[in-house]
Amino acid sequence: MDSSLLSAATADTFNGNAADQIPPPSQPPGTDMTGISFRDQLWINSYPLDRNYIFDYFALSPFYDTTCNNEILRRRSIHPLDLSHLSKMTGLEYMLTDATEPNLFVFRKQKRDGPEKVTPMLTYYILDGSIYQAPQLCSVFAARVSRTIYNISKAFSDAASKLETIRQVDTENQNEPSESKPASETVDLKEMKRVDVILTSLYRKLAPAPPPPPFPEGYVSQEALGEKEELGTQGGESQPPQIDPIIDQGPAKRMKF
Q: Does domain 8-135 have CATH number 3.10.450.580?
């Protein structure tokens, strides 16, 4: 091996430049990994899920790209989510965008082209210790539209099959000869006449209702009073009110001895 190359490698090692040269991952994470999840129960039992340790836990998953800038900071013994260092670098990086300790953490994979210029790429979330890749919005819309189209097509197919069955039944009913109504539904005129004769004979056998009792002498009914008042009003003559002899006219006079 050339001595110059060996000395250069040794110098880079002592200067700390070898830590920045990260070998590419053997299996880089793909863009669509929504069908898998990651969970390390042993790590969860050993370390808490908080802002200080959550990135180390995320780095164990297959969603983590070891060529990102966060890995460079880790090898320099700098916190991988330190924005003051990440903003000075360019390339792939992960940012913790939301955290609800210890249940939910959201990471965003983005490409940084400058201190204020970043392009979001993918989103990952850690829910109760399990890591997932969030689906893209276009994939969600495509799945929902496909499911809606499938349900609508199935509904039309079911409706068409039911209408065809109803049409066949109607055709069969039209082809069948009209049957006469059963005897129980027909009206028997002789039976009706017999019932009328029985009711008439019973009505004749019953005694007539007794007449109402006569009114007492001097009693005037309300109808007669109303007629007299109408006649008096029409004639213009005021008549004294009729006194009902049945109603008590006051205390009786005592006899003097």
A: yes
Which DSSP state fits 191?
A: H
Q: Which residues contact 243 (CB under 8 A, 6 or more apart)?
A: 249
pTM, whole model, 2 decimals? 0.49
The candidate with the shortest Cα–Cα distance to 111, out of 136, 129, 86, 79, is 86
**What order of strands is seen across the sheet that includes strand 104-112?**
91-100, 104-112, 118-127, 130-133
- Closest of 6, 96, 90, 94 to residue 50, by C-alpha: 96
- Look at the block and give the residue holding tokens 């060996």: 6
Please, which residues have CB within 8 angstroms of residue 220's CB and are 6 or more apart in sequence?
A: 242, 244
How many other CB atoms are there within 10 angstroms of residue 112's CB atom?
Answer: 20
Q: What's the one-letter identity of residue 203?
A: Y
pLDDT digit string, tens, across residues 2-16:
444 334 443 443 344
The structural domains of the chain, with segments of one domain joined by +, span 8-135, 136-166
pLDDT at residue 169 greater than cutoff 70:
no
